[in-house]
Target: Flagellin
Amino acid sequence: MIINHNMGAMNANRMMGINQANAGKSMEKLSSGLRINRAGDDAAGLAISEKMRGQIRGLDQAAANAQDAISLTQTAEGALSETHSILQRMRELAVQSSTDTNTSDDRNKIQSEVDQLAKEITRISNTTEFNTQNLLAGGLSDKFQIGSNASQNISLSVNAMDAQSLGVADSTKSTDTFVNTNTKLATVGNAGRGLDKGTAYKVVTTVNAAAAGAVSTDSEAATNGGALAVTTDTAYTGTSNATYLVKVGSVDSAADNNTATSIQYSKDNGTSWTTVTADASAGITVDGMKFTMAKGVGNQWSVGDQYHFTATAANATIQLQDTSSANIGTATTVHYGDKKATIGSSATGKTVDTTFDFSKIIAGTDTFNVDEVTSDAAVVNDGKVVTDATAAAGINLSSQDKANTAITKIDNAINTVSQERSKLGAFTNRLEHTIANLGTSSENLTSAESRIRDVNMAKEMSTFSKNNILSQAAQAMLAQANQQPQQVLQLLR
Model:
């Protein structure tokens, strides 16, 4: 028997501490409901659990995003529903106007309502918004995050749904006119306006006119006196170094002084790359002999130094040179795509070049009708002219024939809106399935994360009871062990 070290008491004390610590952890788990309260409880389990928590919260937010996207599409689709109703009314009016029991005055009144309805279609397109984003004016291309990780998104684009885009209102787009190698001349003399979609210009056939001076072989210069010429080789039409002349925007001297004249040279897919605007009273004329520019609007043209503009490509050249007026003052910058050219005074000795792409030539096209053309631009080999812009008039109910044409146009517009609504409806249905899938994924991940991190209350209660009993027993045994050294005193009696 020894008294310096009471090993029984020391052991009982140690075990009591362990049991009390275990009981404390059990109490912590039971009070929080979590099996892992700190990294020390389960380091690997904590890391896995935190990743799962991130995924779960991301999935829940993605579901909310998808619901917001549904709200956006429903807003757009609701507006298009009203557009559909308006188009149906316009069609009804067109059918009404297509019978000759109507007088001209009757048709004028019907036309007035149709015009107002077209304006309302445009107003709906321009003012339909979701969270300040315009939905129907064109250019909407949104991505919606529908997953918990990066780049898990889907896209939606909504086309322009205004009256012009639907073909039920006049357009204000200007276009270009070209003729072929037979040195014929096409003229647009519409008193100071460019070619506008929806305007029936009398340019159905070409005008026979000899060239003012042919461009020589391999030449890249304009024709005599500063005419506008396009010089090209076999890569373009198969005719070596053919010359194309055009007369665009010649101004009637009786035109209103406030009428502006625009001369545009366009890439064959309709992208304008040069526009010159001047006051109609000053006059801009391209007639195969000269290009005259007098005092104009905005750029302050003045008669003086000669003016030179050049745009070149590998197989084609467009030039304006040796003109009779061009002290331009401030240079004008014009754009084509991401390239630009600058119009400036040739007195400085500088010429700026830019690329002009002849890539979409449609051979064999032989008609030009501004009221109906819908094809791409083309320069053909038989002297006929086509335009590079879609040129479809708005709704005109002034006669039985035009009313019948209007019915077809409105039917096309209705079909366009139907296609857009169908696209939005399909997208909405897709998002609804997306939300259902996100909910299922979130639920399953939550279940998996719960198995890792949540405590089994029944099991932990048993553990707590065990540790509590052991702690009390250890405390009792410690008391007994502390009494054992007292037995030595019995030997001293």
